[in-house]
Each structure stands twice: as structure tokens, then as C-alpha cells.
Amino acid sequence: MNHEQNPVERMRAITISREYGSGGGEIARRLATQLGWRLIDHEVVVRVAHDLEISVEEAQAYDERVESLATRILASMQMVAPIGYAGVVPPMLADSSVYHNALRNVVLAAVNTGHVVIVGRGAQVVLAGYKDVLHARIVAPLERRIPYVMRREGFDQNTARSRIQVKDHDRIRYLQEEYHRRPDDPTLYDIVVNTGIIDLDSAVDLIELALQRKAARFSLPEEELGPVAGLARYPGQAGDIRPPQ
């Protein structure tokens, strides 16, 4: 099938941002399967660990966290003995920007490969300027997310609630510290899906539909994009104009 028949083939990636326990990871997996695209999730951590020649556990400690492993190690050392530990922490771990640069490079390499579904890792910001990438966010009310985490991870209600709060907090701080953005900023996304009532398969279908619609428009000139495209002027004059305060 050529590109004229299937514009989706011209799209390179979908990024999935998600509130913890909203089903976003599962939606990403099902979406990748439905499209026949590659899922990029934990693989990012493994590839970054390989590139930096560190263990997956060390890379995981950095992943989507502002407080890096190095920061926690140095803080604990200072509490025990404020001086005398210079040079103990490996130079790579002493600068969290090294990890985040490697992470960014992995995300960029993935999108350049094409036809990937990327979960988290700030990809909605890293790839914000790419018209051939669809950005989706998955959310749900806390009271719906708690049973999801309880069932999926085997936690009691209080533990599930605490885990959700910690994970959400980590993700918010990560995007703020690294990119000066908030993950709940709706302008970062083409589509936001609330799974409080909508089931996961329907969420997959909605994102795929958004992918098709964006694919059909991303190559249009800038003046033909946005909510004004194809609209005529309102009849008459606006009656609720007020002077600036």
C-alpha cells in the first residue's frame, strides 16, 4: 500500500504520557500490536544502560526521576561524613545530565527508525516539533486508578494509593526539572483520553483514529492548520466585547 492510500504510513511515532494506574502502558502495548509498530518502553532503559555502560538497575534509578542515583548517594555520604568522599562516585553518575542526554538520544533514534509507540520518558516534549508524531495522554480519576493498581500489582488499597501518588509526583517533577513543562499541560498532546469510563480497547481505537486524522493533515501548510481552517466569519458583531481590565 503506498503513502497516498494510507497516510498513516507517513507517521513516525506515537508518544504515550500517562497517569499511573490509568492503563496507559497497557493501551500503548495494545496500540503497538494493533498497528504492527514497535513498543518502546522498558527497552529505553536497557538501551541507555548499554550506551552508558552501567547496569539496568542504575539506569532504572534515574528513569523518570529528578533525584538521580548520584544525588541520593552524595546526600547519604554527606550525612555520614561531609568531607573526604570527593571522587568516590563515578563521574558519569555525578552528572544526571549525562543520563538524560543519553535518554534523549535513544528517543530520537527510535523516532528516526519510525513506526514506534514510545511510553513516557518526556517524549512528548522531546518530539514536540515533529508533525509526523502523535502525542496522546491517558488519565483517569484516582478512585478508578486505585483498583487498577491493586489488581495489576497485588497491593492493598492504601499501598496502591501511596504508589500512585509517588509515581505521579516523580513524573511531574521529572518533566518540570528537565523540560520546564508539566505533564498535565493539555497543549502538549493531540488527544487526551480519560479511562475512568472508556475501556482500554476503545481508548486504543480513539488514538488510532486521531493518528489517521493527524496523518491526513500534518503535511498541510501552516495557514491551513488550527481550528480556524475552513471556517467562515461569525455573522454580525460580537456582543460581549469588554475593555481590558
Written description of the protein model:
It is a single chain. By secondary structure, the protein is α/β, with parallel strands linked by helices. The protein has one domain (7-218): Rossmann fold. Helices cover 49% and strands 10% of the residues. It has a five-stranded parallel beta sheet with strand order 2-3-1-4-5, with helices on both faces. It is globular and about 60 Å long.
**CATH architecture classification name:** 3-Layer(aba) Sandwich
The CATH topology assignment is: Rossmann fold
Order of helices and strands: EHEHHHHHEHEHHEH
Radius of gyration: 21 Å
- CATH classification class: Alpha Beta
The largest sheet, given as strand count, sense and whether it forms a barrel, is:
5 strands, parallel
User: Count of DSSP helices?
Assistant: 10
Mean pLDDT: 78
pLDDT < 50 stretches: 66-94
Summarize the structure.
With 245 residues, the protein is α/β, with parallel strands linked by helices. The chain is built from ten helices and five strands; from the N terminus they run βαβαααααβαβααβα.
SSE blueprint:
Layout: E1 13-18, H1 24-35, E2 38-40, H2 42-52, H3 56-62, H4 69-80, H5 91-94, H6 96-113, E3 116-119, H7 123-126, E4 133-139, H8 142-153, H9 157-179, E5 191-194, H10 200-215
Parallel strand pairs: 1-3, 1-4, 2-3, 4-5
Helix pairs in contact: 1-10, 2-3, 2-6, 8-9
Key structural traits:
245 residues; alpha/beta; globular
